[in-house]
């Protein structure tokens, strides 16, 4: 059980026996009354988005998920294909359930697939991945770490803001939770 004060974007809650993911939340403090939390939540089964308001001291059940380690194989049309590392069974997860995580999900990456009642409902990536830069503007001599930033497209198609000294072919460490650049792991030169 969690309270609305513990909400964060992407957190999973259970509403009427169905798992939901928090898309947005806003704490609202009323004049004399208690605080409320207005949320937009997305059903992990149907994809419907609804709005719901909770009192700040209300207890909300968290869904009983099973996390299973699987390997991401490839994209097939509008689905992503994952393989169970123990049984070698393949599971198809719709593009809408994977969402923006696909921007930082290279093939053959081990991920955790969330199962609710044996049905795949989402994917959880490792906190950090290392990806090569596929395209970025060239860095100029004299660019420093403390200077500005520029967009760089990594091999999986995600775009991340990087320091000016990053070049194409450099391998970057990226935080998958926020989609931000952490450090350069290897230089292309």
TrEMBL record:
**Protein location:** Cytoplasm
Q: Which HAMAP family does the UniProt record give?
A: EF_P
**Positions of the Elongation factor P C-terminal domain:** 129-184
Record carries keyword Hydrolase = no
Q: What is its main location?
A: cytoplasm
Translation elongation factor P/YeiP central domain segment(s): 67-121
User: Which molecular-function annotation in GO is an example for this chain?
Assistant: translation elongation factor activity
- What name does this protein carry? Elongation factor P
Could you give a single Gene Ontology term from the biological process aspect?
peptide biosynthetic process
**GO cellular component terms?**
cytosol
Which pathway does the UniProt entry assign to this protein?
Answer: Protein biosynthesis; polypeptide chain elongation
Q: Name one Pfam family in it.
A: EFP_N
Top-level taxon of the source organism: Bacteria
Indicate whether Cytoplasm appears among the record's keywords: yes
Describe the task this protein carries out: Involved in peptide bond synthesis. Stimulates efficient translation and peptide-bond synthesis on native or reconstituted 70S ribosomes in vitro. Probably functions indirectly by altering the affinity of the ribosome for aminoacyl-tRNA, thus increasing their reactivity as acceptors for peptidyl transferase.
Q: Which UniProt keywords apply?
A: Cytoplasm, Elongation factor, Protein biosynthesis
- Describe the family membership recorded for this protein in Swiss-Prot or TrEMBL: Belongs to the elongation factor P family.
Gene name of the encoded protein:
efp
Q: Which InterPro entries match?
A: Elong-fact-P_C, NA-bd_OB-fold, Rib_uL2_dom2, Transl_elong_fac_P/YeiP, Transl_elong_KOW-like, Transl_elong_P/YeiP_cen, Transl_elong_P/YeiP_CS, Transl_elongation_fac_P
